[in-house]
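Let us practice reading a record.
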Amino acid sequence: MDERASEAEPTLSPIRTGLRCRCPRCGKAPLFEGLLAVRPRCPVCGLDLAGHDSGDGPAVLAILIVGFIVVGLALVVEVKYQPPFWLHALLWLPLTLGLGILLLRPLKAWLVAEAYRRRRSEFTAGDRI
């Protein structure tokens, strides 16, 4: 694919493609193989995704978001109802794990889509081979 063709292609919203966990170029194919493994190449548009990972960003964002939600709720429950500590563990550990797992996929897909949007030439370099 030459540079003029890649510049003319429509730019999809990174947030929309991230929430749907789809390819950042075409928005049609799933971005992941399995739980969090990014596909090496998009089966629909052929975008080279190998080596374009989001690093630790999704985990950090998930920790911050889940921490804010769980700590806020735990504080409200503690002040209002004062349950025993075992009940806190029973409430907040499953919520923390569940929210963390649910948030990782869309956050990772969003960060891969943002990287594609900002560094498109690095993604399309593998297409010229």
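A brief commentary: DSSP finds five helices and two strands in the chain.
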